[in-house]
């Protein structure tokens, strides 16, 4: 952590925006502080986002006075119900609020709010590192108010609640997710008492909406090492409530002295591997979920050992209900994850054998434009500790990639459109829509994917005419267009 002297802190909050807010607060006779995430990020030298300002008095009154001082160019939104106001000026967003005291009822995240002191306001915050405030009034400008040792916790890399963690988490159970999220993104440790309270209060997560949970989960997913978060979610028992399909991977069974791998830790390794290679959130989701079919199809086969046949297929089937439950998008992004989970064994199966053109062509056909992401996922999936095995797989993958490129250039399969379509087939043989048309279309597709004929109109047409005759004794009625 960067160490700032009081003078340096004063400098940091001497921007035109803070100076103006401080001046207006002085005129209104209000104590005024910048507080929360902004201060944490400032002390950690991280890029800071929105600014939260807390005053002893009315947040709306000071926001209106600041807006009046700036005039045009600033935009103010007032939320009377919440007693807050948001000012946008020169690309910055400042949220003003009066210092408050909060008390919670058991069945809701919505607190009963009363006016309070700065201390009350700091008490109601989630973590010591988020409860830091810097004064903006002129005669105390830059003074840090840190009642819970937040600065020390930043230095030591600790996430801890300011008050009894059972109260902090029970008051607002979303904070349990925030706790794991901050530990993950900042690479901090969760303090012991705080961690134990996660487990004790986990059932309280049920009053938090899926939408809010997913925001935190996605932030964990987008961190540089998401496994850190999933280990904590699992250890605390939270994961079982959110993603039981992933939590269920955390088993090792042994039979006749043979154990299968722990698929939870394997999954986390794959997720971290993907996170090193790509910022695509849904590719990361595919990595997290790629093996969720395994518990459903685990078998012990005496001659082979542990098998997980079809786990890709069963896993893919679990994706839509899982996305629906978690309020993840049900559009193309869901289909993308489903497709990757379904296909994730294919490149491995190809690379394990002689890499034939036909297998590669079929893979390209099914993966379409997502082929590169699928290859990234599959390479990330090789977590074997056996270096020779790993090297062999990766070398074969290189071969698959070369073949993919060659075949794509030659046959343009990625966005495959058959060179002869159903309309043309019907016209050719004077048919109305019927089973024969479907069979001929499939024959044509297979012929191209198997490399029997090139992906071009005339050879495709000749092939269709020949197969129509062989299979259905159909003769050409209309002269084909060429
Ligand atoms: N806060 C809280 N409990 C919550 C959410 C927020 O106590 N469930 C407090 C914390 O003091 C936090 C501040 O409100 O610092 C602002 O919240 P928010 O903007 O959501 O988070 P940040 O801490 O700024 O961090 P980030 O923007 O990364 O979410």
Blueprint of the fold:
Elements: H1 6-12, H2 16-28, E1 32-35, H3 37-43, E2 51-55, H4 59-70, E3 74-79, E4 84-89, E5 92-98, E6 100-103, E7 112-115, H5 118-123, E8 133-135, E9 144-145, H6 150-156, E10 158-159, H7 165-171, H8 174-186, E11 189-190, H9 192-200, H10 210-221, H11 227-236, H12 238-242, H13 244-247, E12 254-255, E13 258-259, H14 263-277, H15 281-289, H16 294-297, E14 299-301, E15 305-307, H17 311-326, H18 332-343, H19 346-351, H20 357-367, H21 371-380, H22 387-411, H23 422-429, H24 435-449, H25 457-472
Parallel strand pairs: 2-5, 10-11
Antiparallel strand pairs: 1-2, 1-8, 3-4, 4-5, 6-7, 8-9, 12-13, 14-15
Helix pairs in contact: 2-4, 8-10, 8-11, 14-15, 15-18, 17-18, 20-22, 24-25
Bound molecules: cytidine-5'-triphosphate (CTP).
Main pleated-sheet profile: 7 strands, mixed
Judged by helices, strands and strand pairing, the structural class is alpha+beta
Bound molecules: cytidine-5'-triphosphate
How many beta-strand runs? Answer: 15
Number of helices: 25
Can you tell me the residue ranges where pLDDT is under 50 for at least 5 consecutive residues? none
Radius of gyration: 30 Å
What share of the residues lie within helices? 40-55%
Would you tell me the overall average pLDDT?
92
Straight-line N-to-C gap: 72 Å
Strand content: 5-15%
Task: Report the principal-axis shape.
Answer: elongated
Order of strands, widest sheet: 3-4-5-2-1-8-9
């Amino acid at each position: 952590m960067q160490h700032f002297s009081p003078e340096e802190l004063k400098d940091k909050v001497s921007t035109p925006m803070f100076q103006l807010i401080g001046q207006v607060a002085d005129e209104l006779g209000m104590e005024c502080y910048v507080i929360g995430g902004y201060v944490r990020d400032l002390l950690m030298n991280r890029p800071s986002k929105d600014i939260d300002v807390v005053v002893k008095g009315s947040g709306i009154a000071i926001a209106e006075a600041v807006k009046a001082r700036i005039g045009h160019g600033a935009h103010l939104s007032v939320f009377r119900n919440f007693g807050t106001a948001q000012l946008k000026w020169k690309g910055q967003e400042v949220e003003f609020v009066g210092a408050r005291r909060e008390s919670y009822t058991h069945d809701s995240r919505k607190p009963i709010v009363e006016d309070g002191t700065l201390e009350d306001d700091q008490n109601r915050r989630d973590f010591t590192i988020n409860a830091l405030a810097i004064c903006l009034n002129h005669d105390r400008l830059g003074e840090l108010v840190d009642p819970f040792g937040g600065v020390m916790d930043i230095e030591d890399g600790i996430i801890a609640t300011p008050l009894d963690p059972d109260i902090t988490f029970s008051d607002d159970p979303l904070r349990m997710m925030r706790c794991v999220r901050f530990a993950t993104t900042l690479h901090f440790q969760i303090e012991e008492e705080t961690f134990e309270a996660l487990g004790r209060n986990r059932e309280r997560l049920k009053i938090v909406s899926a939408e809010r949970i997913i925001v935190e989960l996605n932030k964990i997913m987008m961190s540089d090492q998401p496994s850190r978060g999933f280990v904590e979610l699992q250890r605390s028992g939270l994961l079982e409530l959110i993603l039981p399909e992933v939590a269920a991977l955390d088993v090792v069974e042994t039979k006749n002295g043979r154990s299968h791998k722990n698929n939870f830790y394997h999954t986390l390794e794959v997720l971290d591997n993907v996170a090193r290679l790509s910022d695509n959130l849904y590719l990361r989701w595919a990595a997290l979920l790629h093996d969720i079919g395994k518990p459903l199809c685990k078998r012990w086969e005496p001659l082979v050992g542990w098998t997980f046949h079809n786990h890709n297929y069963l896993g893919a089937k679990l994706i839509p209900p899982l996305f629906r439950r978690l309020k993840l998008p049900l559009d193309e992004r869901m289909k993308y994850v489903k497709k990757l989970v379904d296909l994730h064994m294919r490149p491995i199966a190809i690379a394990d054998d002689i890499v034939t053109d036909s297998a590669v062509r079929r893979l390209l056909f099914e993966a379409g434009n997502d082929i590169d992401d699928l290859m990234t996922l599959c390479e990330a999936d090789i977590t074997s500790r056996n270096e020779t095995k790993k090297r062999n797989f990766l070398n074969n993958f290189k071969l698959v990639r070369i073949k993919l490129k060659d075949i794509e250039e030659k046959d343009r399969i990625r966005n495959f459109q058959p060179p002869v379509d159903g309309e043309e087939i019907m016209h050719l043989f004077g048919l109305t829509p019927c089973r024969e048309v479907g069979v001929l279309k499939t024959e044509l597709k297979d012929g191209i994917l198997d490399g029997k004929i090139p992906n071009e109109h005339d050879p495709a047409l000749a092939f269709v005419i020949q197969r129509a005759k062989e299979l259905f004794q159909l003769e050409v009625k209309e002269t084909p267009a060429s």
